[in-house]
Structure formats: C-alpha cells, structure tokens
Amino acid sequence: MIRIILPQHLRTLARVNGEVALEVNGPVTQRAVLDALEAHYPMLRGTIRDHVTHKRRAFVRFFACEQDLSHESPDMPLPDAIVTGSEPFLIVGAMAGG
pTM surpassing 0.85? Predict the structure, then answer.
C-alpha cells in the first residue's frame, strides 16, 4: 500500500482527510503512483500533471524520504520505504513570490 500526502487544496478537491493509501500494480514509480491516484480520484486529473503531456505542473513538487524527486524521471523506481509504506510519497504545492 502506497501512502500519499496531498496538499490541503487537493485533499479538499478529492474530499479526503489526511493521507491517501493506494495499491499500485507493477513497479512503483512516480508515474504509476500518479496514474493510480488519478484513476481513484478522477477530479485530480490535470491538477498535478498536465492533461495532455502528463508532465508535472510547474508549482507542484514530489518528495520521498526527504529527497526532492520533482526533476527525476517519472519512470524511476521510488525508494523501498515508499514501496513498503513505511514512508509517504509527498505531493507539495511549491510557493513563489517576491
């Protein structure tokens, strides 16, 4: 079971409280996790990744085991701690401003 922590605005949109736990079939990669998340919560499609290109939105970041994975290949296997569920996969809304 993969544990996912969403930012508050996406939890509100998906109507969930706290973490989301999902089964991911096959290798556990960013792409597989996001595919499973969007399949289970279709209202999140297009909020984390572009509808057409499936590239990460500019102000969304991905973290696992205290590492920023935002610029890693979406097909790179995630750390074992994510796969076993001992650590959550974090989707974070980046902040910008001046």
Answer: yes
